[in-house]
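In response to the reviewer comment on reproducibility (Comment 2.3), we provide here a single inverse folding case reported in full, input and output, so that an independent group could reproduce the run without further information from us. The structure tokens appear first.
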């Protein structure tokens, strides 16, 4: 028997941390470990003052639930180390309250694990979790029940074993001239396929799946009905969601596992050949490539002017999206060393860029043009000592293109905070408020449903 998919993923990350000296052609991911995911976090945000934000986290229960059993009055012996989905009600201060747990406490059941953050549809009232067991769980966002949602294996062939889902599920709005508007759920799998479902019913689209030649860990990004993602087969793909045909594909020198960024007509995506690529979103033509000293795994982000690309060499690179002068290599505007590999997607807040490294170190970096010499550190944020940071960070307020009046209506806490989780399920909401100490607003250990320090 080979190693489990979970062990392979853990082994790959451990190998990646030592991959600086690995030749690009030799850096081929191999998967699995006694790993139950990265405790991914997502949120359904408060829209007005006084409303709560719901935080969703997928993580294992603790190995000793005696105290929680006393608190709840339930026999939880069979829940130990089971992976659960939890919904936390957060008003921005104090400790969040657990609204529901799936599967319920005391059931003795759980998921095998999850790596990608849940996707939330407020319109449908559903939260979608991609499981390592190859299933999608569509749960009622208010109650955690399956009764108004659905659950299914993404691979609709009983003769084939479902393969793990590593990338996050993605919601996409699609307008079809024949059927009208629809909300799709996109799911990528280790079986090498991109699947598309009706998000409300779980019905698979007629053209699904779209097949690549190797595993897919890259979470798709969608624009104008086209999904963009990478594959372990070294290619970046653009697929039309209306009929599933390939618009284009571009070959890199290594596995493409990271999530892409669409901006200014370009697709920015990293590869295990140590390059970040800027491709024309329409035709996949190469605009430029930027080389680092290790793999690009985390998704790049932008503030509308600059691309910020984290690498597993421990650096965050600030890059202009524009093409370099003809014949010249792409150069960074600045770079900042985090002293540990970065696999977690950073987030932008009004004060700058928040970056989390694998060792739990977190920093707020200036993105101001006046500080483009070395990426000045505005503040060192509380270190997440309880676990490694691998899942994407989440800003405390939803991204807003205008960054204007709508953001102004949100509270200071909403605008200036970040959610971060260790891979052991400890979740923090950290303040990054101007003129105040950068500290935890709250800490919650989801493995025991308890506030932590």
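Designed residues, in position order:
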């Amino acid at each position: 028997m080979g190693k489990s998919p979970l062990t392979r993923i853990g082994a790959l990350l451990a190998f990646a941390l030592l991959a600086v000296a690995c030749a690009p052609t030799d850096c081929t991911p191999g998967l699995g470990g006694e790993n139950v995911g990265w405790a991914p976090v997502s949120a359904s945000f408060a829209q007005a003052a006084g409303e709560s934000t719901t935080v969703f986290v997928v993580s294992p229960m603790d190995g000793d639930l005696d105290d929680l059993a006393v608190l709840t009055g339930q026999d939880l012996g069979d829940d130990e180390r089971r992976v659960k989905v939890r919904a936390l009600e957060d008003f921005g201060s104090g400790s969040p309250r657990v609204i529901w747990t799936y599967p319920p406490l005391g059931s003795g059941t759980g998921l095998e694990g999850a790596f990608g953050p849940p996707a939330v549809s407020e319109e449908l009232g559903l939260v979608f979790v991609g499981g390592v067991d190859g299933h999608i769980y569509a749960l009622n966002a208010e109650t955690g029940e399956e009764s108004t949602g659905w659950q299914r294996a993404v691979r609709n062939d009983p003769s084939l074993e479902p393969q793990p889902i590593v990338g996050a599920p993605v919601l996409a709005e699609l307008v079809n001239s024949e059927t009208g508007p629809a909300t799709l759920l996109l799911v990528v799998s280790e079986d090498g396929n991109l699947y598309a479902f009706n998000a409300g019913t779980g019905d698979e689209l007629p053209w699904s799946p779209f097949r690549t030649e190797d595993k897919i860990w890259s979470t798709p990004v969608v624009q104008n009905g086209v999904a963009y993602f990478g594959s372990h087969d070294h290619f970046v793909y653009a697929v039309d969601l209306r009929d599933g045909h390939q618009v284009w594909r571009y070959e890199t020198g290594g596995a493409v596992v990271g999530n892409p960024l669409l901006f200014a007509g370009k697709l920015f995506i990293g590869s295990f050949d140590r390059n970040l690529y800027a491709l024309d979103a329409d035709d996949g033509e190469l605009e430029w490539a930027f080389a680092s000293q290790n793999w690009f795994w985390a998704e790049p982000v932008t503030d509308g002017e600059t691309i910020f690309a984290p690498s597993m060499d421990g650096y965050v690179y600030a890059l202009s999206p524009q093409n370099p002068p003809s014949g010249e290599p792409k150069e960074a505007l600045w770079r900042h060393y985090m002293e540990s590999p970065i696999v977690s997607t950073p987030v932008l807040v009004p004060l700058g860029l928040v970056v989390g490294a694998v060792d739990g170190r977190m920093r707020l970096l200036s993105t101001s043009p006046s500080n483009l010499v070395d990426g000045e550190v505005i503040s060192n944020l509380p270190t997440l000592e309880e676990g490694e940071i691998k899942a994407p960070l989440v800003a405390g307020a939803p991204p807003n293109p205008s960054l204007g009046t709508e953001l102004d209506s949100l509270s200071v806490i909403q605008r200036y905070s970040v959610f971060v989780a260790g891979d052991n399920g400890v979740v923090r909401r950290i303040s990054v408020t101007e003129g105040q100490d950068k500290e935890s607003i709250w800490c919650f250990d989801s493995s025991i449903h308890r506030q932590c320090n």
